[in-house]
UniProtKB/TrEMBL annotation:
InterPro entries reported in the protein's UniProt record: LysR-type_TF (IPR050389), LysR_HTH_N (IPR000847), LysR_subst-bd (IPR005119), WH-like_DNA-bd_sf (IPR036388), WH_DNA-bd_sf (IPR036390), YidZ_PBP2 (IPR037402)
This protein's UniProt keywords: DNA-binding, Transcription, Transcription regulation
Protein name (Swiss-Prot/TrEMBL): LysR family transcriptional regulator
Gene Ontology molecular function, alphabetical: DNA binding; DNA-binding transcription factor activity
SUPFAM superfamilies xrefs: Periplasmic binding protein-like II (SSF53850), Winged helix' DNA-binding domain (SSF46785)
Top-level taxon: Bacteria
Pfam families given in the database record: HTH_1, LysR_substrate
Family to which the UniProt record says this protein belongs: Belongs to the LysR transcriptional regulatory family.
Native species: Kerstersia gyiorum
Start and end residues of each HTH lysR-type domain: 8-65
């Protein structure tokens, strides 16, 4: 690269481009809002640095030298590129063609993803989605770009990450409808500890608050099964006496389609917080801003976080 260009400012590049384009210092000065003597000084500096007059007089006009003509198109390209860099990127969902990676639980995949994809096809038909099962504390996926956005349960977002709260929910104890505890209005701690338990190991933290509460009393529950998927846990509790602690809105959804019911816990209070979370590196990306707003709005407008009124609707099996 010619060393003459090493210390040129953007305003100097614009001055050179204007001089070469209009080939008239007075007109170029008016276009740039500067004075003719200032442009004359710039032209003298360019000529000395480049070792070429750049433009020469022919009669009453100026014409470009071969070197001046050769510089004109590259200068236009450079200035146009700088303009694109300094201008906000325009984004249109209808014209977007890229794949986003969304992470969440298998519950999200089963109950949220179909409606989300339906709405996505209407708004951004060129966009595709890869869904990945979220594993607790795998924030390196967001940092490395393997995942764009995650929906999960958290107390708060870690450092260097951003998030928005989708909503809150309360824990309930889920069981098969024929279970002995299904006749109870609320589940006491003694009743809770009298039966075996299952837990869902993937996704957000669903029941560690229970174990922390029990440890403070030097107690523990009889944890018979840890399974990664909601769907597997549902099958297990329908065919056993195991109890499963999970958010109320999920239990309510299950009760509408499976032979299960849920009851509140009388011995502990807890609130789940649902988030969409992303990494700082994509905070300002127009495409990412649109996608996370789209996911956020869809989750908020769906029944994803709508546990409803009083729970349970009745206390009978």
């Amino acid at each position: 690269m010619n060393l003459a260009f090493n210390h040129l400012s953007v305003s100097q590049l614009m001055a050179l481009a204007a001089i070469l384009e209009v080939r008239n210092l007075s007109r170029a000065a008016r276009l740039l809002g500067t004075s003719q003597p200032a442009l004359s000084r710039h032209l003298a500096q360019f000529r000395e640095a480049l070792g070429d007059p750049l433009m020469v007089r022919r009669g009453r006009e100026y014409v470009l030298t071969e070197r001046g003509q050769a510089l004109l198109d590259p200068l236009r390209d450079v200035l146009a590129g700088l303009e694109r860099l300094s201008s906000p990127a325009e984004f249109s969902p209808a014209r977007c063609e890229r794949r986003f990676c969304l992470a969440g639980s298998d519950y999200v995949a089963q109950y949220i993803l179909p409606g989300l994809l339906h709405d996505l096809a209407l708004q951004a038909p060129g966009v595709s989605v890869e869904f990945r099962i979220w594993q607790a504390d795998r924030y390196d996926w967001l940092e490395d770009g393997k995942v764009d956005l995650v929906t999960t349960m958290l107390e708060d977002t870690p450092a260097d990450y951003h998030g928005r709260v989708l909503g809150e929910d309360t824990p309930v104890c889920c069981m098969r409808k024929g279970h002995a505890l299904a006749r109870q209005a609320r589940i006491s701690q003694a009743q809770y500890l009298s039966w075996p338990h299952a837990t869902i190991s993937m996704g957000g933290d669903k029941d560690s608050f229970i174990d922390a509460h029990l440890r403070r009393q030097h107690l523990r529950r009889d944890l018979k099964l840890a399974v990664p998927f909601y769907s597997a846990a549902l099958s297990v509790i329908q065919q056993s006496d195991m109890l499963l602690t999970l958010p109320e809105h999920i239990a309510r959804q299950w009760a509408q389609q499976a032979d299960v019911c849920a009851r509140p816990l009388s011995f502990i209070e807890h609130r789940f917080r649902y988030w969409v979370v992303w990494h700082s590196r994509i905070q300002s990306s127009p495409e990412q801003q649109w996608f996370r707003q789209f996911v956020f709005d869809h989750c908020r407008s769906s029944r994803f976080l709508s546990p409803g009124d009083a729970w349970p609707p009745n206390h009978t099996a």
